[in-house]
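Look over both lines before class:
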Amino acid sequence: MPKDINTRKMEASDWDAVSKIYTEGIATGFATFETSIPTYEAWDAAHMQTCRLVAVTGNTILGWAALSPVSSRCVYGGIGEVSVYVSSNARGKGVGKLLMQTLIQESEAEGLWTIQSGIFPENEGSIELHKKMGFRYIGKRERVGKLDGVWKDNLLFERRSETVGT
C-alpha cells in the first residue's frame, strides 16, 4: 500500500465522492442489495453518527467505511453492521485493509463489542478481507433477498472485540 494513503473522518461534503464509489459497488452486482444510491440524508439516517471513514490520498477519496446499527433494541447497541467500499481504481492496494483496521479501532473506542457483515458468496475480495481482519464465518442465510429478480444468499461474518465486552 502506498504510504500516502490515510484515513480520516467522513464529512457530509465527501458524499459526492463516496456515492460514486458506492455506485461502483452497486454496479458489481455482488456488493449490496441496493440498486440505487440513496440521498445523503437517507444514508446519514441509516448509519451510526460515529465510525464513518474515508481513505484518502491527497484530496482523492479512494474508499469509505461506515457502521449501521443492527437493531433499535438497546441490547444490540454494541453491535454494528459493516460497510466497506473501495473505488475500482484502488482495489488490491490495501485500502480496504486500512479502512477496516481503522473501523475496528474506532468501533472499539465507541464501545462496540461486535461488528458484523453480510457478504454475497461471489464477493471473494470482501470475504478474504474479513477473514484477514479477524472476522469469523458464522453461517449462511439462503435466499435471503432478491437482487434484480434473482434470489441471493448472504454469508454472515462477525468480529468480536478482544477488549470491549469481555
The chain has a mean pLDDT of 94. The CA atoms of residues 135 and 159 lie 4 Å apart. Residues 95-109 form the longest helix (15 residues).
